[in-house]
């Protein structure tokens, strides 16, 4: 028969492999803490993103047939000597703990016998709570019904137990930050992109080439497969000075316009309506030798019309979204406006901008957006700053377009690999 405890009660439990059941439909974690009541590091946080402690003594496991129950296996004999207590922690993403019906903790022996339990009562507006703990006493282990809630949620609970949520700065980022330098000019000779055979460049001085293009991995099959927007062969255009660009037979919807020019002065790009009215100003800069990737939308008639204002030779390409540079945990070094693609799990992207003017970044959540001929509304939050900056942007699960709308200078970007502590606390900051 299960022995029921009330808040503050404790009881001895056998030093064996016990199963702990927490219900009802709530986020659960275990913190392994020392005598000081603090974790030694991220590895001592066991949650759904890190379901097994390195010692193997605490792990999430498959449950039985009870809906809304989280199961935790605890091998008390295998818990490291430095660990004094195993805290059972619960938190909510929506609402308060008082709104959770039937919140309880039960401890079962290896044969399934119910050893001890705690029905949580009296919860209030807290969003996080230490429900109970298994702790060492007199050479054995005891269970205590704790019921300590935190109105400031996981953040407050984490602070009380030594959880460090700071992220390391990569050496290359530190070096770039600590070594002031003049902002370099855009490269004079970007990597060449050959024009198709059926459309040779005119007989004139060689046109500048488009910026180097990141090889985008095939996304036609498997997890993360590309499912949004039309796919077509890139269209390559060359010219000199001001011009109206007209590209027909494109799939309607968002595309990438990649541009590189040899100029000492002004560069602007406008989208045009069918009546040749200026609609959207995609770029307006005085940077020498401007290059960059711009996001624009092809109208329903499949005809992209752009008004280009520049002085000098230029080359451009119209690309499908699937040619956007893929964000990874490797550092991406680039220059100017760009369109990036995220296809993985929810994560933060870190930027280090080293220009002197506007740095504007927004993003578009394509997951669930069923109309490939339009873009969804841009997400909030976004980045809108001036001058050298180190900023982060939170991204949901992909696919997500990340649009560097303004970036007249060099920048770096990479996906942050969150620490276990950061991942665990992220839900508290949503």
Verbal overview:
The strands form 6 sheets. The chain has a 6-stranded mixed beta sheet, with no helix packed on it. It has a 6-stranded antiparallel beta sheet with strand order 2-12-11-8-4-5. It has 2 domains: 158 residues, sav2460 like domains (Lipoxygenase-1, Sandwich); 251 residues, Jelly Rolls (Sandwich), CATH 2.60.120. Helices cover 5% and strands 42% of the residues. It has 430 residues and is mainly β. About 12% of the residues have low confidence.
What's a quick, concise take on this entry?
By secondary structure, the chain is mainly beta. It contains three helices and 29 strands.
Give descriptors for this structure.
3 helices, Jelly Rolls, 6-stranded mixed β-sheet, mainly beta, 2 domains, Lipoxygenase-1, 6-stranded antiparallel β-sheet, about 425 residues
CATH class of the largest domain: Mainly Beta
Q: What is the share of helical residues?
A: under 10%
Count structural domains: 2
* Rg (C-alpha, Å): 28 Å
Trace the largest sheet across and list its strands.
Answer: 1-10-9-3-7-6
The CATH topology of the largest domain turns out to be Jelly Rolls
| Beta-strand segment tally | 29
Name the beta content range. Answer: 35-45%
How many DSSP H or I helices?
3
Give average pLDDT, whole number: 83
- The name of the CATH architecture of the largest domain is Sandwich
Distance from N terminus to C terminus (CA atoms, Å) equals 41 Å
Shape estimate: elongated
Element layout with pairings:
Elements lengths: L2 E3 L4 E4 L3 E7 L3 E7 L11 E2 L11 E4 L7 E7 L9 E7 L12 E5 L5 E6 L8 E10 L2 E11 L2 H8 L10 H8 L56 E6 L2 E5 L5 E9 L5 E6 L5 E8 L5 E8 L5 E6 L3 E7 L5 E2 L5 E4 L2 E5 L4 E7 L4 E8 L17 E4 L2 E7 L4 E8 L2 E6 L4 H7 L4
Parallel strand pairs: 1-10, 21-23
Antiparallel strand pairs: 2-12, 3-7, 3-9, 4-5, 4-8, 6-7, 8-11, 9-10, 11-12, 13-20, 14-19, 15-18, 15-20, 16-17, 16-19, 22-29, 23-28, 24-27, 24-29, 25-26, 25-28
């Amino acid at each position: 028969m299960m022995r029921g405890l009330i808040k503050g009660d404790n009881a001895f439990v056998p030093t064996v492999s016990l199963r702990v059941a927490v219900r009802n439909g709530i986020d659960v974690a275990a913190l392994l803490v020392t005598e000081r009541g603090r974790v030694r590091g991220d590895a001592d946080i066991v949650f759904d993103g890190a379901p097994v402690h390195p010692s193997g003594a605490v792990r999430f496991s498959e449950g039985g047939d009870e809906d809304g129950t989280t199961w935790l296996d605890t091998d008390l004999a295998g818990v490291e000597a430095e660990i004094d207590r195993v805290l059972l922690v619960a938190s909510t993403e929506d609402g308060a703990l008082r709104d959770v019906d039937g919140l309880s903790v039960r401890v079962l022996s290896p044969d399934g016998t119910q050893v001890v339990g705690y029905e949580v009562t009296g919860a209030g507006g807290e969003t996080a709570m230490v429900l109970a703990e298994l702790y060492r006493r007199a050479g054995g282990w005891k269970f205590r019904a704790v019921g300590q809630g935190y109105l400031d949620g996981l953040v407050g609970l984490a602070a009380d137990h030594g959880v460090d949520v700071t992220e390391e700065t990569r050496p290359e980022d530190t070096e770039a930050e600590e070594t002031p330098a003049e902002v370099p000019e855009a490269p004079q000779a970007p990597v060449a992109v050959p024009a198709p055979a059926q459309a040779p460049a005119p007989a004139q001085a060689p046109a500048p080439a488009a910026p180097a293009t990141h090889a985008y991995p095939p996304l036609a099959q498997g997890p993360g497969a590309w499912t949004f927007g039309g796919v077509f062969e890139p269209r390559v255009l060359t010219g000199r000075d001001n011009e109206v660009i007209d590209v027909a037979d494109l799939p309607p919807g968002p595309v990438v316009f990649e541009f590189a020019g040899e100029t000492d002065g002004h560069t602007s790009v406008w989208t045009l309506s069918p009546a040749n009215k200026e609609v959207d100003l995609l770029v307006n800069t005085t940077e020498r030798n401007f290059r960059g990737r711009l996001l624009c939308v092809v109208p329903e008639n499949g005809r992209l019309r752009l008004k280009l204002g520049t002085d000098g030779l230029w080359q451009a390409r119209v690309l499908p979204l699937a040619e956007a540079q893929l964000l990874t945990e490797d550092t991406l070094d680039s220059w100017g406006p760009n369109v990036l693609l995220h296809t993985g799990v929810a994560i933060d992207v870190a930027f280090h901008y080293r220009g002197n003017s506007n740095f504007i970044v927004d993003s578009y959540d394509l997951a669930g957006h069923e109309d490939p001929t339009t873009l969804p509304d841009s997400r909030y939050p976004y980045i809108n700053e001036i001058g050298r900056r180190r900023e982060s942007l939170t991204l949901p699960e992909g696919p997500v377009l990340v649009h560097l709308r303004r970036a007249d200078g060099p920048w770096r970007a990479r996906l942050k690999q969150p620490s276990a502590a950061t991942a665990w606390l992220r839900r508290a900051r949503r």
